[in-house]
From TrEMBL, chain A:
<feature type="transmembrane region" description="Helical">
    <location>
        <begin position="144"/>
        <end position="162"/>
    </location>
</feature>
<comment type="similarity">
    <text>Belongs to the binding-protein-dependent transport system permease family. LivHM subfamily.</text>
</comment>
<feature type="transmembrane region" description="Helical">
    <location>
        <begin position="264"/>
        <end position="283"/>
    </location>
</feature>
<keyword id="KW-0812">Transmembrane</keyword>
<keyword id="KW-1133">Transmembrane helix</keyword>
<dbReference type="Pfam" id="PF02653">
    <property type="entry name" value="BPD_transp_2"/>
</dbReference>
<feature type="transmembrane region" description="Helical">
    <location>
        <begin position="37"/>
        <end position="58"/>
    </location>
</feature>
<keyword id="KW-0472">Membrane</keyword>
<keyword id="KW-0029">Amino-acid transport</keyword>
UniProtKB/TrEMBL annotation, chain B:
<feature type="transmembrane region" description="Helical">
    <location>
        <begin position="222"/>
        <end position="242"/>
    </location>
</feature>
<feature type="transmembrane region" description="Helical">
    <location>
        <begin position="25"/>
        <end position="53"/>
    </location>
</feature>
<feature type="transmembrane region" description="Helical">
    <location>
        <begin position="254"/>
        <end position="281"/>
    </location>
</feature>
<keyword id="KW-0812">Transmembrane</keyword>
<dbReference type="InterPro" id="IPR001851">
    <property type="entry name" value="ABC_transp_permease"/>
</dbReference>
<dbReference type="Pfam" id="PF02653">
    <property type="entry name" value="BPD_transp_2"/>
</dbReference>
<dbReference type="InterPro" id="IPR043428">
    <property type="entry name" value="LivM-like"/>
</dbReference>
<feature type="transmembrane region" description="Helical">
    <location>
        <begin position="302"/>
        <end position="324"/>
    </location>
</feature>
<feature type="transmembrane region" description="Helical">
    <location>
        <begin position="124"/>
        <end position="145"/>
    </location>
</feature>
């Protein structure tokens, strides 16, 4: 006999987790779409954002909302610097080299954070209202609920912006054909930089949310692995795919954790990944690139 | 100064070591390898063993990534498979270590071929991610198949025996690790003088062209995975004999990244590069440790900084080499050689 209340509560928590996955995956997909770089350091940038936020809240002078904004802005700046210093020189190199560069970058960021803030796990300041949310009878922890709502709003805003705003069009043009975009007068290097800045900002926001739910530690970058599953399942260059796969992976992970035990979480998501790679190698919504000689 | 080497027949051109000077240095190296445990202390023997194990595994990954062009982040997991096989055989069956190592290699090769199966449909980064999935799943098996692997507490195995002697100390296990690694290296170097090795290189350079030339992609890609994981399995077996305690945490994803980094830093698609990369990446943390020992009297907190700095240096080296010397240490080595060959002229 299935306990439906329990089932739906787990489902809600799963959707909440999935919302955060979708948000981080959005940053991932943006970078991939524009620059064809798989950013393995996404989890580490997310961690950095959460730590920067902690750094701002540690000096109690600033109001929380300002700290959040400052943390997001700072991480965005760092993202821009990373693009300019490390990713730009790698333009035109094989994608595997760029992939490894981002792995190296992740490692540097972990070291940096440990150097500044120490290796021990820490808690973020409590800023999300504590009263639990009830949807019908189902209980949902307030943090996950608010995180989901924030993620949903940010995602909606971004999707709208990319449809209409000129920058969004420039981004889609760059993704479609770099050379053509260049010759139509689009400042492609600028697009690259801004994509990294925006992605780092998204990651910082997601990091603050993730950190306020589960605490922060330098190992938080492992979160990036789950996001990797999300983007592969959804298709590396599909924003919609990231959204749907994010929710899907969140649900599967939470159900596996609840019914089978915590150690099955990663197994479940990675089994899904293998399944998708075998059945649809380019993800559920990704474009299949045809290779010609 | 040397202008060039004149080769008079095909055999001389295909020789692994083409000049007399090179062969001379090789003899010196061989003597040094044999004499090392007699003249060095425990610590140096320990380091030598560690370096040799990493060299074996890195060379295996180099065959797959550097020569066949398939990126894998599962090398550490394959090593784990080898290590568990060796530990179980040593504990439950008690077969001689040569047989154990061979079986470890074959077992890992089998697993590697299964992991390599997606390589026909996906390549490049998707393949790298598929291998991450494989290593996550293998880690789960190591940690949860408790009856066989001992779960999270892992396995503790007895030392290897050679002619009735137990090999406990690093200086003693060295006598297993060194010959096996040297053998593996010669195997790898010779592989690329054969049809199979040439097929690998053709696949790396352009897989569709290779297929048009009549190279069976699935077969050779799987073969590359099998050989590479065979190396990993044997290296894992050596690792097991060396440390003798095997837990699921012994072979984290970070270790796979380490091997890939060693291949890149050393130089992809060069046997010498794999060797140099593995030595370099193993020694850097040790050198940092020594540096900390030197600064501690002046700066007592140095020890606390060691771990983060080590992580940063690791990442920094990957970035540095990819941006400034993508051909790796092997290219630097070639440049140095060229300089001395052509001296006093400019290279």
């Amino acid at each position: 006999m299935i306990d439906w209340l329990f089932f739906s509560e787990i489902g809600l928590a799963g959707l909440g987790t999935g919302g955060l996955y979708a948000l981080t995956a959005l940053g991932f997909v943006l970078i991939y779409k524009a620059t064809r770089v798989i950013n393995m350091a996404m989890g580490e940038i997310l961690m950095l954002g959460a730590y920067v936020f902690m750094g701002f809240t540690a000096s109690t002078l600033l109001p929380i909302w300002l700290s959040i904004l400052l943390a997001i802005a700072c991480t965005g700046l760092i993202g821009g610097v990373i693009e300019r210093v490390i990713i730009r020189p790698m333009l035109g190199e094989s994608e595997i080299s760029v992939f490894m560069v981002t792995i190296g970058l992740g490692s540097v960021l972990v070291g940096l954070v440990e150097l500044i803030w120490g290796a021990n796990p820490q808690r973020l300041i409590e800023f999300i209202p504590k009263e639990p949310i009830f949807i019908g009878e189902a209980y949902l922890s307030s943090k996950i609920g608010y995180a989901f709502v924030t993620a949903a709003i940010v995602l909606a805003v971004f999707l709208a912006i990319f449809r209409t705003w000129r920058g969004g069009v420039a981004l889609r043009a760059t993704a479609g054909d770099q050379a053509a975009a260049y010759s139509m007068g689009i400042n492609v290097p600028m697009v690259f930089s801004s994509v990294w800045v925006i992605s780092a900002m998204i990651a910082a926001g997601a990091g603050i949310l993730v950190g306020s739910i589960g605490g922060i530690s330098p190992e938080m970058g492992v979160y990036g692995l789950s996001v990797l599953v999300v983007v592969i399942v959804g298709g590396l260059d599909s924003l919609l795919g990231a959204l749907i796969a994010g929710l899907m992976v969140g649900l599967i992970e939470t159900y596996a954790g609840a019914y089978l035990g915590g150690e099955y979480k990663l197994l479940a998501t990675f089994s899904l990944l293998v399944l998708v790679l075998i059945l649809r190698p380019y993800g559920l919504f990704g474009t299949h690139e045809i290779e010609r000689l | 100064m040397r202008i060039g080497t004149v080769k008079e027949n095909y055999g001389a051109d295909a020789a692994l070591f083409d000049t007399r000077v090179q062969r001379g240095w090789l003899v010196v190296l061989a003597v040094a390898l044999v004499l090392l445990p007699f003249v060095s202390g425990q610590y140096v023997s320990y380091l030598a063993c560690l370096v040799l194990i990493n060299v074996a595994s890195t060379t295996g990954l180099n065959i797959l990534t550097g020569f066949t062009g398939l990126v894998s982040l599962g090398q550490a997991a394959f090593m784990g498979v080898g290590a568990y096989i060796v530990a179980l055989l040593e504990m439950k069956v008690g077969t001689p270590f040569i047989l154990n190592l061979l079986l470890a290699g074959l077992g890992a090769a089998l697993v590697g071929m299964v992991v390599g199966l997606p390589s026909l449909r996906v390549k490049g980064l998707y393949l790298a991610i598929a291998t991450i999935a494989a290593s996550v799943i293998l880690h789960f098996v190591f940690a949860n198949w408790t009856e066989v692997t001992g779960g999270v507490s892992g396995l503790t195995m007895p030392p290897a025996t050679l002619f009735g002697m137990e090999l406990n100390q690093p200086g003693e296990v060295y006598w297993i690790i060194m010959p096996v690694t040297v053998l593996l290296l010669f195997g790898a170097a010779n592989l690329f003088r054969t049809r199979i090795g040439r097929a690998f290189i053709a696949i790396r350079d352009r897989d569709i062209s290779a297929e048009v030339l009549g190279i069976d992609l699935l077969r050779y890609k799987l073969l590359s995975f099998a050989i590479s994981s065979f190396y990993a399995g044997v290296a894992g077996g050596l690792w097991a004999y060396f440390f003798r305690v095997i837990t699921p945490e012994s072979f984290p994803l970070m270790m796979s990244i380490f091997f890939l980094a060693a291949v890149i830093v050393g130089g992809m698609g060069s046997i010498l590069g794999g060797i140099l990369g593995a030595i370099f990446m193993t020694m850097v943390p040790e050198v940092l440790k020594m540096l900390v020992g030197v600064v501690t009297p002046f700066w007592p907190e140095a020890v606390a900084v060691l771990s983060p700095v080590r992580i940063m240096v690791f990442g920094g080296l990957i970035i540095f080499f990819l941006i400034f010397e993508p051909e790796g240490l092997a290219e630097i080595w070639r440049k140095i050689r060229r300089f001395f060959h052509l001296w006093p002229f400019k290279t």
